[in-house]
Specification:
By secondary structure, this protein is an all-alpha fold. It contains 5 helices and no strands.
Length: 121
């Protein structure tokens, strides 16, 4: 792996963008029940907010502003995980697998932002 490829692996702006796009693609595949429609909307909002707030954190005007934005990133990742847990995949194995992968990514993002927060405070 070249140095450029290695840096891209750890680029959180790109990773959070991929998470939001994956969440959107997942929601498109869901069965259109009332609950899934509402939970899907919430997932789309929360997953997109993770990356948007990370971009804001990188442009922070102060350390305090940075810390607040990172806390929001962690909160939105946690919220994304919550909505993913609520979504009904109707025992569809492929959808359930995709849901679990997204739930795991949300958890990993929570941990990453938690670590950034601990090192920043």
């Amino acid at each position: 792996m070249t140095e450029t490829q290695n840096l891209k692996t750890y680029d959180l702006e790109e990773r959070t963008l991929r998470f939001a796009k994956s969440a959107r693609a997942f929601v498109k595949k869901l069965f259109k029940t009332t609950a899934n429609i509402e939970d899907g909307k919430q997932l789309i909002k929360a997953s997109g907010s993770v990356g948007a707030n990370y971009i804001e954190a990188n442009e922070a005007l102060s350390k305090k502003d940075f810390i607040v934005r990172i806390k929001i990133c962690r909160k939105e990742a946690k919220e994304s995980r919550y909505w993913l847990r609520l979504i009904d995949t109707v025992d569809e194995a492929d959808l359930e697998n995709e849901r679990k992968i997204l739930e795991n990514e949300a958890s990993e993002l929570m941990n990453i932002f938690g670590s950034i927060l601990r090192k920043s405070e």
